[in-house]
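BUG-236 | component: ligand-complex export | severity: low

The export step for zinc ion jobs runs without errors, but we want the raw record kept on the ticket for reference. Input record follows.
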Amino acid sequence: MFSKGLSFLTRALFPQRCLQCNAVLSILEQSLCQFCLSSAPQLDSIAGQRTMLLSSTLPTDRPTSFRSALYFTGSVQIFCYSLKYGNNYPLGLVLGNHFLSPLILTTVAGQRRPVVVTAIPVNLWRRFKRGYNQSEALARGALRGVRKADVDVHFVELLQKTSRRKSQINFDVFHRWHNTKGAFRATKKKRVPKDALIFIIDDTVTTGSSLLRAAEAVLQAYPNAEVHLLALAQEL
Ligand SMILES: [Zn+2]
C-alpha cells in the first residue's frame, strides 16, 4: 500500500513519457501510451496463415500453432530494440500483456486446462549483459493478461541453451536454419501438468527456426504435451 502511494507520488512528480510519441503517460500506462499500442502494425491474416504453416513441421500429432502478433517494422523495431538493448524490462511486460496474452486466450478459449508459459532462453553472458531475458519479460507480461481471465497459468523455465552459438544477425535464411540445430535442450524435468498447454515465447522471428527447435526440445522431454509457439514480431 505504502509503495503504491509512493509510486503514485513519484509518477506525479516525474511523469513518464511514451517511448514512441513522447506523450505523458497516465498513471495506468507504462512505457507506451494506449494510442501507440493500438496503432502497432498487426500481422494480417495471409502472413498469419503463412507463419501458422510452420507449426505443421513439428513432430507431434497433438494440436499446435505458430503465431506472431506484429510486423517487425517501424515502431515495432524500436520497441524490440529497446527491449533487447535498452535495459527496459517493464516494456516487455507491457508488450507481452497487450499483444501476447490475447493470443494465448484465444487458444485456451473454452478449455479448463492449465497453461504453462516458457521463453526462448538466451545464453548466460547475454542475460548478464542485458540484466534479463527479453523473451521471458514478454512471457511474464503475457502471464499477467492471462491471469486476469482467471486461467490457471504459470511460468516454467523449460529450456536452456546448449552452447554459446553465433549471433544469427549476419546469417542468411539457410545458415540461420542450420545454426539453430540442437541449439536448445529441455531443462531437468519440471512439474508440468499432464494436460497442460505449453506456450513458448520469442521476441522476433525470421525463419521461425529458433522457436521450432525449442518446440522440438520440449516435445522430446514432454512427448504428450500440446505446444504452441508465439512471437511478438515477424521480420519480413
Ligand atoms: Zn504514444
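Assignee comment: Attached the raw record above. The chain has two domains: 1-39, 40-234.
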